[in-house]
Structures are given as C-alpha cells and as structure tokens.
Write a structure and sequence with these properties.
By secondary structure, the chain is mainly alpha-helical. It has 3 helices and no strands.
C-alpha cells in the first residue's frame, strides 16, 4: 500500500528522502525548499512549476541576505 501522506512516490526515489538531506545539512527554510523543489521536479507532473518555485525561494533568500547586509552598513 502506498503512503501518500508520509512517503508519496515523488518523495521516495533514490537512497534517501530529500527531507533527510535538508535536515542533515541544517539548511535554513528557504534553501531547504529550493533543494526540495529541485530534487523532486523530475518526479512530478509539472516540472517547470516546481523549478519556478525553487527559483522563487532562492530569489527571496538572496533578497533577505542582501537586506540584512545593507542594514549592517547603516
């Protein structure tokens, strides 16, 4: 029986689940989502949508880092 809540098909390809890598690497929220969307894109129906989501999270994280850096220069 497939567990579509905890282990859907697009989560369980390869040797490890993406969540395990994200936690092991201690990625911040935004970067964890980038990794998640990129890693799963090939295994989902709408690949482009997931890659755009990854880009959105990455752009948002970059903006956050830039804002924090600029506030440090005040």
């Amino acid at each position: 029986m497939t567990d579509n809540i905890n282990h859907p098909k697009h989560y369980t390809f390869g040797e490890i689940e993406v969540i395990d890598a994200i936690e092991d690497w201690r990625l911040p929220y935004h970067l964890g989502n980038v990794v998640k969307y990129v890693a799963r894109a090939e295994h989902k129906e709408n690949k482009i949508q997931d890659l755009k989501k990854a880009r959105w999270y990455l752009d948002r994280y970059i903006a956050k880092i830039e804002t924090e850096a600029n506030h440090g220069q005040d």
